[in-house]
Design a protein that fits this description.
The protein starts with 6 loop residues before the first strand and ends with a helix. The radius of gyration is 14 Å and the shape is globular. The strands form two sheets. Strands 5-4-1-6 form a four-stranded parallel beta sheet. A two-stranded antiparallel ribbon has the order 2-3. Helices cover 35% and strands 19% of the residues. The protein has a single domain (10-128), classed as Spore Coat Polysaccharide Biosynthesis Protein SpsA, Chain A (Alpha-Beta Complex). It contains five helices and six strands; from the N terminus they run βαββαβαβαβα. Strand 2 and strand 3 (37-38) form a beta hairpin. By secondary structure, it is an alpha/beta fold.
Length: 129
C-alpha cells in the first residue's frame, strides 16, 4: 500500500497522573518505554510508514522539548517538527493553532502514547479520502 499525502499532528505531552512513578521518571506518557523504546517512537514509525506528509509533535511543556527532540534525533526521524504550545488548555488546543501550517486536505491526529499499526492507519486514511 502506498503512503498517503497527509500531514499528522501527534499530541505528545500527556501528564499521565495515573502512571505515578513512571511519569516522574520519564516526564510524559509518550516517553515511557516499551521493550526499551519510548512509545512515541512506535507511533512515529507507524505514522511515517503510512503517510508522506509532515508530522507535528504538539508539546505544551518546555521541559519535554529536549527529551522528545533527542528521541527524534536518536531514531533519525525526518520531517518531524516540534510545535510548542504553552497553553493551560492542553495539547489538543495546539491543533487549532496548527491549522494554518497544515498543507494537506486531511490531517491525522493521534496521541504519542497510543500504539497503532501502520495497516490500521491506512484503513483510517482510506476511509477519510
Amino acid at each position: 500500500m502506498s503512503r498517503q499525502k497527509v500531514d499528522a499532528i501527534i499530541m505528545s505531552g500527556g501528564r499521565g497522573a495515573r502512571f505515578g512513578q513512571l511519569i516522574t521518571k520519564y516526564g510524559c506518557k509518550s516517553l515511557i518505554p516499551i521493550l526499551g523504546i519510548p512509545t512515541i517512537e512506535y507511533v512515529l514509525r507507524a505514522v511515517r510508514e503510512a503517510i508522506e506528509g509532515r508530522i507535528f509533535l504538539c508539546i505544551e511543556r518546555s521541559e519535554l522539548i529536549k527529551p522528545i527532540s533527542e528521541q527524534i534525533n536518536k531514531f533519525n526521524q525526518k520531517g518531524v517538527k516540534i510545535y510548542f504550545n504553552a497553553s493551560i488548555r492542553g495539547t489538543m488546543h495546539g491543533v487549532y493553532k496548527l491549522r494554518d501550517r497544515i498543507r494537506t486536505k486531511n490531517v491525522l491526529v493521534l496521541y504519542g502514547h497510543h500504539l497503532i499499526h501502520p495497516n490500521h492507519l491506512n484503513i483510517i486514511l482510506d476511509g477519510s479520502t
